[in-house]
Specification:
The complex is a heterodimer of chains A (about 200) and B (about 575). Chain A is mainly α and about 200 residues long. Chain A has a single domain, classed as Four Helix Bundle (Hemerythrin (Met), subunit A), CATH 1.20.120. Chain A is built from 7 helices and no strands. Chain B is mainly alpha-helical. Chain B has a single domain, classed as Cytochrome c oxidase-like, subunit I domain (Cytochrome C Oxidase, Chain A), CATH 1.20.210. In chain B, α10 packs antiparallel against α11, α12 runs parallel beside α16 and α16 runs antiparallel to α17. The N terminus of chain B is likely disordered. At the A-B interface, α1, α5 and α7 of A face α1, α7, α8 and α9 of B.
Chain lengths: ~200, ~575
């Protein structure tokens, strides 16, 4: 049995199933991070004092990480565009770059975290650090999730390219939409936590 | 963008279209991707959890009716840490209360209404071969299952299960025992499950509906599930965020919900402070008010189907019902703080939320009124599903109308922490939603099994349940108006003012235990009918919607020919036609 509109587009909606599914998923993700940002605002406005982010956190490192993530979004688009142009070899290169850049982000984050722990700065220290660790931690889990999916499409998942290239291209596109979302969350996180 | 890709992909896809193979036992019944099997898995698990949650309540009812009296027989079996000598400890009572609410809402009613009926009926009613993402569907069930196991397992950790109410209000929940951590982990599983389900339902409804099935030709049940899926999709993530923060508070020692200078047992808690206990309530009710509509909308959908079918008339005001439903779904996101009038969040907030609360009652009344007017002039068939559907109407009516005083700030304050609230929402959910769910079981049982359930046993089940439900919940309004708090482990026995109404606790308790007896005919009927029930054809109720075009039980892939919708969903008693129904699927 085949599920209709897995690859081909439904005439009246102009979409396939995966595209709707990923956007719905992203909508719920917006609510997840939205609730955390709202909590941040509520806790911050209710505090008599609140540290400036740059007095505790390392802004140059985070700026570097921002550049890394934005670059990985670019390579993600290039990976998808390569598939659209039927160039599987370049897809593999760009996809590998995307996963590796995600890895660079995680390594930098690891140094940031361990530096904080070394300075005895924990979620229990104050609510600024609590929200910092919660938001960046949850974001990091999303980065890992995106890397896992992208690595799958780079490796074993790429078999689908041989049997159903259109479906494979759609999957990479949807994975890319998630990756861009994760990138976007960081672009909100960075100024909120590090600069304000 | 992906149009080229789509064209390129059309060919290899069509090539391997018909490819049936026999699946083994595990793939067919346990790790199945078939929406019908998953729906039945959800349904049976949900029914089991409903019964388990009800059993917890029956234990509590003993304590409320006969406080500090040892429970004969069963009491001594529950162990010294729970009921030493058969007498219930307050901590155990709190466990039962918190877990009764959690299990009934998140593991009983929602899985049955959305996971069970939604999964089984919705793809059939829109003429789809399956859900849009069958494997996600399976994952959704197994996340739900893991969540259920976690919740059950929490009874056996040191200190027992969560004790801070199904609402898990902070800071009480933050300083509570290990069971609360299990509760949070269990909730994260359940939220993941409902997220996957919601994505699947919405995509399926939009993409896989049959040719000719426009949105305004949807059966009302499909609309109800569609709106419900949006509520689950958008309201649950904030609770997930709140759950993560509470987990951080409990495990990593942060203070999101712990205010500065919090005193517990005469000692200042040594946390950093600066948190906000009300924040938890806001995030919790941001989910939990839409959750109320997750409980009620599928029920309305089921009742609408059954009423149209058994009055042999189109639904009165189908369009206004649909618009009301969509409006209800939207409004349910901006009424949450009417659960928080007691917290002192401020009169400006209260004024806003009582206004939106009064507004949201309008579409509910529109739907209920339309259903009642639909009965007018119909030649009603009083079969078991119809009896339960008819029972739903006044019960939901009582539940809804008693909610109006609670929606107003001033009237809410004396009533909020009393049994009045318990009576109010149980009328909505227990004789309301659960009756609708029973109606649905009796109504779609022939589709799932090819056999009907026994009518006589069904009628006994209905009459017994209807009387008992009212015996249980009606006295609570009196208890509440007499001022008895709903949070007392002795049911008010310690207070002089409560003495004149305490006998109502006994009435209520005996009602609950009798209700359990009247579920036995249902349980027997359910299993007996699977094998011995009267065999039926594919459309035993002479219904019009698409699910009745499939064989009973439908095979994997559902329909023998690709179905098509030619007209609206409720073409009953159309003048000039030979039968009193014209199915959607007949040209």
């Amino acid at each position: 049995m085949e599920i209709p509109y897995t690859v081909e587009l439904r005439r009246d909606t102009g979409l396939n199933n995966g595209k709707i599914g990923i956007w719905l998923f992203l909508a719920s993700e917006v609510m997840l991070f939205g609730a955390l940002f709202a909590s941040y605002i509520l806790i911050r406005t209710g505090s008599p004092s609140w540290p400036r982010g740059d007095s505790i956190l390392n802004v140059p490192l985070a700026t570097f990480n921002t550049i890394v993530l934005i670059s990985s979004s670019v390579t993600m688009v290039m990976a998808w565009a390569s598939l659209m142009r039927n160039r599987f070899g370049t897809f593999r290169l760009y996809m590998a770059a995307t996963v590796l850049l995600g890895g660079v982000f995680l390594v930098v984050k690891y140094f940031e975290y361990s530096h904080k722990f070394h300075d005895h700065l924990f979620p229990s220290t104050n609510n600024f650090l609590a929200i910092y660790f919660t938001l960046t931690g949850l974001h990091m889990l999303h980065v890992m999730g995106g890397m896992a999916v992208n690595a799958y499409f780079w490796g074993p998942g790429a078999k689908l390219w041989k049997t159903d290239p259109a479906w494979f291209t759609n999957r990479v596109e949807n994975s890319g939409l998630f990756w861009h979302f994760v990138d976007l969350v960081w672009i909100f996180l960075f100024p909120t936590l590090y600069l304000l | 963008m992906s149009e080229h890709a789509a064209v390129a992909g059309a060919k290899p896809h069509a090539a391997h279209e018909v490819h049936h193979e026999e699946l083994g036992f595990w793939r067919k019944y346990v790790f199945s991707v078939d929406h019908k099997v998953i729906g039945i898995q959800y349904g049976i698990t949900g029914l089991l959890f409903l019964f388990f949650g009800f059993s917890l309540m029956m234990l509590m009812r003993w304590q409320l009716a006969y406080p500090t009296t040892p429970l004969p027989l069963l009491g001594s079996l529950l162990g010294e840490t729970r009921m030493p000598g058969g007498t219930m400890l307050p901590e155990f009572y709190n466990e039962l209360g918190a877990m009764h609410g959690t299990i009934m809402v998140f593991l009983g009613v929602v899985p049955l209404a959305v996971g069970g009926f939604g999964n089984f009926v919705l793809p059939l009613q829109i003429g789809a071969p399956d859900m849009a993402f069958p494997r996600l569907n399976m994952a959704s069930y197994w996340f739900f299952f893991l969540g259920g196991v976690t919740m059950l397992g929490s009874f056996f950790v040191p200190g027992g299960a969560a004790q801070s109410g199904w609402t898990s209000y902070a800071p009480l929940s933050v300083i509570a025992g290990t069971g609360q951590t299990w509760w949070l982990v269990g909730m994260i599983f359940l939220i993941t499950s409902s997220l996957l389900g919601a994505v699947n339902f919405i995509t399926t409804t939009i993409q896989l509906r049959a040719k000719g099935l426009t949105f305004m030709r949807f059966p009302f049940f499909v609309w109800a599930q569609f709106v419900t899926a949006f509520l689950l999709l958008l309201a649950f993530p904030p609770l997930e965020a709140a759950g993560v923060m509470q987990l951080m508070d409990r495990v990593a020692g942060s203070s999101f919900f712990l205010p500065t200078g919090l005193v517990v047992s005469g000692q200042i808690v040594s946390n950093a402070g600066g948190g906000n206990a009300l924040l938890w309530q806001h995030l919790f009710w941001f989910l939990a008010h839409p959750e109320v509509y997750v409980l009620i909308l599928p029920a309305m959908g089921i009742v609408a189907e059954i009423i149209a079918n058994n009055t042999r008339k189109p639904l009165w005001g189908y369009r206004s019902m649909v618009y009301s439903l969509v409006f209800l779904g939207f409004m349910s996101f901006i009424v949450w703080a009417h659960h928080m009038f007691m917290t002192g969040m401020g009169t400006a907030m209260a004024a806003f939320f009582q206004t939106t609360t009064m507004i949201i009652s309008i579409p509910s009344v529109v739907i209920l009124t339309a259903l009642i007017i639909s009965l007018w002039g119909g030649s009603i068939r009083f079969n078991t599903p119809m009896l339960f559907a008819l029972g739903f109407l006044p019960m939901f009516g009582i539940g809804g109308l008693t909610g109006l005083p609670l929606g107003l700030n001033v009237a809410d304050i004396p009533l909020h922490d009393t049994y009045y609230v318990i009576g109010h929402f149980h009328y909505v959910v227990a004789p309301g939603t659960i009756f609708a769910l029973f109606a649905g079981v009796y109504y779609w049982f022939p589709k799932a099994t090819g056999r009907r359930m026994n009518e006589t046993l069904g009628v006994i089940h209905f009459i017994g349940s209807f009387i008992c439900m009212n015996v249980i919940f009606m006295p609570m309004f009196w208890l509440g108006m007499a001022g008895v708090s709903r949070r007392l482990f002795d049911g008010g026995a310690g207070y002089d003012f409560a003495q004149p109404v305490l006998h109502l606790n006994v009435v209520s308790s005996w009602g609950a235990w009798t209700l359990a007896l009247f579920q036995l005919p249902f349980i027997f009927n359910f299993f007996w009918s699977i094998w011995k029930g009267a065999e039926t054809d594919q459309n035993p109720w002479h219904a019009t919607t698409l699910e009745w075009a499939a064989p009973s039980p439908p095979p994997h892939g559902n329909f023998l020919q690709v179905p098509q919708a030619y007209r609206g969903p409720y073409e009953y008693s159309v003048p000039g036609t030979p039968k009193d129904f014209v199915p959607q699927f007949e040209a």
